[in-house]
Design goal:
The protein is α+β, with helices and mostly antiparallel strands. Helices cover about 20% and strands about 35% of the residues. The N and C termini lie far apart (about 65 Å).
Length: about 170
């Protein structure tokens, strides 16, 4: 019978212990970022379902949108909308709203979602998109997914966060 050399066995044990300890450590919260909660009751022209942390969406009409709620108003530094998406169809002519109220005055343009056969990051500086500060009363984010039915999109990890150092340098 072949045996494992003692030094190799010690190395394997050490790595297993390190891996077990790493799994047991709590993950530090992402300070300075606000998670948003999707409100399915405030969606329109979409079939949507949630599995784990992923919202799977199929647009069903010509005015598809989804709404997210913030637990509190965003901090002044939380100006970047960020989420991950997967989409075999993409979505064009997107725009968003911050509210309440959701009105034409709170509308801003959003870059299209390109076709993505794997998870992609989406980032938008809301202050740049709105061309002004975020309202202190902001508690709602509405994302309109264009004007076409039969678009498929999956979205996860929707949040508002501060700009990174790199984003500040590029501004």
């Amino acid at each position: 019978m072949n045996s494992i050399p003692p030094r190799l066995l010690d190395l394997i044990r050490t790595r297993l212990v390190i891996a077990a300890l790493a799994c047991a450590l709590p993950i530090a919260p992402d300070l300075g970022a606000s998670e948003l909660a999707w409100d399915p009751r405030m969606s329109h022209d979409v079939d949507a379902k949630v599995t784990d942390d992923v919202i799977s969406i199929r647009t069903t009409g010509h005015d598809p949108y989804l709404m997210w709620r913030l637990q509190s108003s965003p901090q002044p530094s939380e100006r970047v909308l960020e989420f991950e998406y997967f989409s075999p169809t993409g979505a064009q002519s997107m725009h968003g709203y911050l509210g309440p109220p959701i009105t034409e005055g709170s509308r801003f343009e959003m870059p299209d979602l390109s076709i993505a056969q794997g998870w992609q990051s989406y980032r938008l500086d809301l202050i740049d998109a709105k061309q002004g500060e975020l309202p202190a009363t902001t508690r709602l984010l509405r994302i309109d997914l264009g004007m076409k039915p039969d678009r498929s999109v999956q979205i996860r990890k929707v949040r508002l966060r501060p700009r990174t150092d790199e984003e500040r340098r590029q501004a």
